[in-house]
Structure formats: structure tokens, C-alpha cells
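Dear Dr. K.,

Following up on our conversation at the group meeting, I've run the structure prediction for C-type lectin domain family 4 member M-like from Branchiostoma belcheri. I'm pasting the input sequence below exactly as I used it, so you can double-check it against your construct before we proceed with anything downstream. Let me know if the numbering doesn't match what you have in your notebook.
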Amino acid sequence: MVIRTLCHRANTIVSDPQDLETEKSHLTQALKTCGYPQWAINKATCPKPSNTKPSAGSPRVYLQACPDGWTRNKQSCYLLVDTPKTWQDARDACHQLQADLASLTTADEQTYMAAQVDDTYWFGLSDIVAEDDWQWEDGTNYDPTVTNWNSNEPNNMNDEDCAEIGSHAWGWNDQACTDRNGYICEIQTD
Ligand SMILES: [Ca+2]
Ligand SMILES: [Ca+2]
Ligand SMILES: [Ca+2]
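The predicted C-alpha cells came back this morning:
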């Protein structure tokens, strides 16, 4: 920190050589006082004040945190949005956030989300393409033994093709895709 501060000062100094020599000896003395060994002072280089490209091959930093306002469970971040939208508009809204409607594909994920919701939300499951051929938005194969449908659902009453969570018992119901619900977006991390 001391080096950075002093380097910043050094970068901003425009003066004659004698002043610079005097400044250098002051700075060197200040660094010694702070406990920096001489070799560290000699090796210290000041970053250029202008933009400098990161060197090629520098290690990539993986951010483990979810975006602000999102919640994490295992390898996923979730956002519950209360603004009512049709299922397709909700899917588009998640895409705008670089996310997808949530695919609740495991028992753990289904239990987790059941505990999160206190209202009805769309998630990423539909049989829009072909009746009773349920498909997850993230491409996971639909396993009818790993679901959380409420009893007697999905019933396709009056042609319901989109899945909502949070209707009675916090389980799932198939609902008309043109109805308006809040929705759950998911970002998978790794
Ligand atoms: Ca998921
Ligand atoms: Ca259906
Ligand atoms: Ca239904």
C-alpha cells in the first residue's frame, strides 16, 4: 500500500532532476522506515498511470459469489422475480439476465425451492412442444420419478403446458402458459 501510494505520487511529480533526486531519497527513507528491505525497494516498479493490458496467460479468476440479490444452492444461483409475466415472457426476462428459467431437476433442488417460495412462480419446465412430453429448459432429460407435482397434476386442464411452483402444498402444477406469474431464474456455476 505504501509503495502504491508513493508510486502514485512519483508518477504525478513533474519537476527538475535535483528535486526528483531529493524526492527519491525521501521516498527511499520512508520505505525503509516502513520496514521494506532495500532489495524490495530496488525491485519495486511503478504501474503506468495509463491503461495497461493484463499480461497474456494471467490466471483466470473464477467468481464464486452469486450476483447481488440472488441466492445460492449447491452449484446454482437463483432469482425469484415477483413481476407477473406469461411463461414465455418470463423465459425471455431470465435470458436478458444471462440466466434461464430454473430447471429443478434433482430432489435436492426441488426441496430447496419448495422452501423458498411463498407464492406461485413459473420455472423452466413445459410440454409446449408435444403434449405430455415434459422438457427442462436446461436440457436435462425429464425423469418422471424425480418431480414434485401436486397430486392429480399435471392434468392439462383446458390445455396447460407450463409448470408453476407454489400453488397449494408448494408443489407443482401445470398451468396455462398465458397466465401471469412471478418467475424463478437460475444461473449454473462451475
Ligand atoms: Ca437447476
Ligand atoms: Ca400439457
Ligand atoms: Ca394443472
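Two things stood out to me. Residues 33-55, 58-63 have pLDDT under 50 and may be disordered. The first helix runs from residue 2 to 12.

Best regards,
J.T.
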